[in-house]
Give the backbone structure.
Amino acid sequence: MIPEPVKDAMTIASTTPVRRALLACTVLVALAAAPAMGAEAPSHHALAMHGEPAHGPDFDHFEFVNPDAPKGGQMVLSAIGTFDTFNPYVIKGTPPPLTGVWDTLLYNSPNEAFTEYGLLAESIQMPDDRSWVAFTLREEARWHDGQPVSVEDVIFSLETLKKDGLPFFRSYYRDVSQGRKTGRRTVRFDFEGGGGNRELPLIIGQMPILPKHWWEGRNFAATTLERPLGSGPYRVADFESGRMIVLERVDDYWGRDLAVNRGRHNIERIRYEYYRDMTVALEGFKAGAFDFRQENNSKLWATSYNFPAVQKGLVVVEQIPNQIPTGMQGFAFNTRRPLFKDARVRSALAHAFDFEWTNENLFYGQYTRTESYFSNSELASDGLPSEEELEILEPLRGQIPDAVFTKEYAPPSTQGDRALRDNLRDAFALLEQAGWVVRDKVLVDGETGQRMSFEILLNSPAFERIVLPFARNLERLGAEVSVRTVDTAQYQNRMDNFDFDMAVESFGQSLSPGNEQIDYWHSSRADDPGSRNIIGISDPAIDKLIELVLSAPDRESLITRTRALDRVLLWHHFVIPNWHIQSFRVAYWNKFGRPAESPKYGLGLDTWWVESAKATQLERGRVELAAAEGPAETGTAQAPADSPAAAAPQAESGETDNSRLSTILAILGGIVLAITVMRIMIRNRRRR
């Protein structure tokens, strides 16, 4: 096949020897400049980080969907806090959930470790060394205003996100040197350092593509509540700033028949209702104000999901297993603070957290202690370093903790015969080594006499019951510890500017760690406001290990290098590890259908659908429950008139609603909902 630049050159008329010579020269230059194609850069329908994609180019749909799922209905979800912008890609403002508004070049399958299939991109060209990648856009790809998605849009997206986007994007795409047009529908990205980072072609595939023509004349870096122009299956239909937002399915969505989209995006309208905090949101769910809730609080899961609607089968409560790497959640130290620069101090304070007591008394035994930054995956380190790991770690001896070579990491524990007082005794010994002493029952710096004092920052009152016992244990060491809970916006602002001492933070991981490791741990991100290197890690040895992970040539070396990185991070005691669970805890009003098989690495909520027969039965069940129990006792309420159930299509069996019954349902629903909301408001005033 002749590359398109060569085709253009061959259209030049040639009637003289001079012109024929000029044509020959032009063709040679074009051939030299054209991107390598053919056997050197084969065309692909999908890219896998390692190995081959599970599905071939002619696959019809993914195995975790129902390709014949009905379309329609509405799903009401909850969100906490507020929102003040529709641009989720800049540091200013707080955006609402906008999933499905913008398409990407490739779609990341939640059923494979790291494989992406063509979405906006019809095909992908990439040489074996992965030093560049080229995407050919689908002819039919369109923005919601009808204009085609162009190569210029793709190049604009890269340049804009790197220049004005979140700091994360500058880090994520830093090795992408440029994007350039190589054909009418083809864009090529070249990478710094050749093919050193094998993940880069897939990273570019994840990039949200933005409409250049729409953003021209607008300030990308500013907050905005102008409804955005997208290319995905949903658009913003309605909103009230900070209170609610409605996304509606785009009827003429250009990609609705693609294999990657079959059986997905089945809900007609997705409505997010905003709540002040999780406690009020839970009451709203019980009242029927929204349809689906994923529970992350073990106490609530154990004690709050046996209300009458659950007992009557109107609400489904279940755990959906997954194989998602759980990463690391922990009490993260801000090592920019002089107090936390010494790893011995960080290790000592970890001895004051009693996970076993917390799990038994607060979590109802539901959690497992996290012992790796890559927990619940084959990437997690275990035992002592293997021979292959030692080949990586030995050149760094003296630059990394000695314990990496001699001990298996395990967080302090009170299992078995060991008691908290034993851990606190060990903590005192470590603090003494670091120069801290106890004077008049107060822990002070042996040289300056300054008391150890710090704040634990939270963004949810639900975490206070966990942190306060930990704080009391720290006070037994003589430290002065305050616990402060702030709203979501203030918390994010403080974290973006590293204005904290200790905070509960999560570092999510995948089965194919890559550029996000730079944002988490690399020196280049330590002083960049808004980066995910909230800990402030600036260590050349860790930088080297990250680079090795990014350049891993195959799956086996990726596992080995990631385990080596994991060990070094653990023995630096940057966090006090928390806990994890290997399933989704969900509750939902019983009107949804979902595929028999869930994706391994995701919940797959975009594959659910509204079943009209279930929705009708649910509405009748709500009315019967309200009549039998009374609104004050049931804690349930009729859904609002624009709820998913109310918007669900009628059953195709020919069964229709009686108009009088519909009127009664609407009146009763409004009364029940009003009474329930009033009860919530009165209860909240009393709590104040």
